[in-house]
Amino acid sequence: MAPSSIPGDKDVVACIKKGMTIPAAAAQLKVTPSVMAGLYYRLEPVADPSLVIKGTPKGVAKQIVDGRSAGLRWERLAERSGKTVSEVKGIFEEASGVPASQSYSGRGRRFDGSAPAKKEPKVKAPAEKKPAAKKPPVKKAPVKRGPVRAKTRAERAQKSGSPS
Q1: Which domain holds residue 23?
Q2: pLDDT bucket at 24, cuts 50 / 70 / 90
C-alpha cells in the first residue's frame, strides 16, 4: 500500500474520534500503518485533550510511569507530554528506579532475552485410543544425483596409497 499523500490532521482526528485502530485508519486513508502510527500519536491529544500529560514534574513523572505500565509506547508518551523520547525515558528512570531498557511493553521476546509468560495449556481428559490402521509401506523413489566431478590428482594418489 504505497502512500499517495499524507492525510490532513482533520481526517486523522476524525478516525481517532471514531475509535478506529491504527491499521484500519491507515487502510481507510491509504497510508502505511507506520505513517498512521506517527500521526495518531501526534494527534491523540488534539482529539482527546484529557490525554495530555501536564502538571507538576512529580505528577508528570507519575503519569509517564503509569502510562508505561499500561503498555504505552515511548513515542506516544512523548507526544502526550510534549517532550522528546529520551526525556520521557529519563523521567521514567528517575521516577520508577527501573532502567528504560528493562521496561517492556509489547508482545514476543523481551529485550532482556526472557521469553513471554506462557499460558497454561488446558488439560483435556484422555480419549480412548483406537488402534491405528496398518498402512502399506511406502516405497521411496531413488535419489537422483547430479554429475560426478572428476577426482583430482591428489585424491587419486591418496586412494592408491603411492606418495607423489
Answers
A1: 1-49
A2: very high
- Residues 151 and 130: their CA atoms lie apart, in Å, by 56
32 and 56 belong to one structural domain: no
Looking at 61, 80, 105, the residue that finishes a domain is: 105
State the cell numbers at 140.
521411496
Please report, for residues 107, 116, 118, 119, 125, the alpha-carbon distance to residue 122 in angstroms, rounded to integers and kept in the order given: 22, 18, 12, 9, 10
Q: Provide the 10 A C-beta neighbour count for residue 12.
A: 23
Q: Is the pTM of this model over 0.85?
A: no
pLDDT at 1: 47
Q: Distance between CA atoms of 147 and 135, rounded to whole angstroms?
A: 36
Average pLDDT over residues 99-109: 70
Matching residue, cell 508528570: 60
**Phi, then psi, of 59 in degrees rounded to 5:** -65, -40
Whether residue 111 lies inside any domain: the answer is: no
